[in-house]
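Hey L., structure's done. Input below.
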Amino acid sequence: MSAWSPRDMPELSGRIAVVTGGNVGLGFASVEGLAAHGARVVLACRRVDSGHEAVDRIRSRVPNASVEVLRLDLAEAGSISDFAKAFLANYDRLDILMNNAGVVNHPELVHTPDGHELQMATNHFGHFALTGRLFDRLCNTEDARVVVLSSAATRAGEIRFDDLDWRERTYDRLEAYGDSKLANLHFMVTLQRRFESNGGQALAVAAHRA
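Output:
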């Protein structure tokens, strides 16, 4: 199998994409690649100033890039709701939802304002809620795609449904991260079934993240 590169991406003019955590790392590279091939991209990130700095860097290399920054904190239910409302009010389609943002191996146990362990809350619960709020728009867009960035760290995951928020166990950052990445995979399998039962053409896939 030959190596793939961003040059192999098809023309994406007229397509709308959302990339969470699009200001850094793989998210940044994804926003740049999508924009370079003609997609209009919504860069979703927690710090809007960092998002605008990312857009400036992208436009220095892709002058005609169409990228908008919208604030999204996946650990805050209110932020997810606000993001979805803003997106749905301004875009009538959603071709690509890339659930990329994540907290990786957080050294200490932290609970979000809603009481959930930070890595699971951000990496899975937040993306679950976001996808749910955008579900109808995805179903109504021909050949829409949802991509979640998972990880080989799933091998360290063993989801304890009786203690999702690590209130009874001694916190293990690697296992907590693995739990969240394993949850991502379960989510994509179930989301694909939901798309199929809904009669749409949307596709849910997972990609490896080292």
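The domain at 12-207 is CATH 3.40.50.720 (Rossmann fold). The chain has one domain: 12-207.

-- N.
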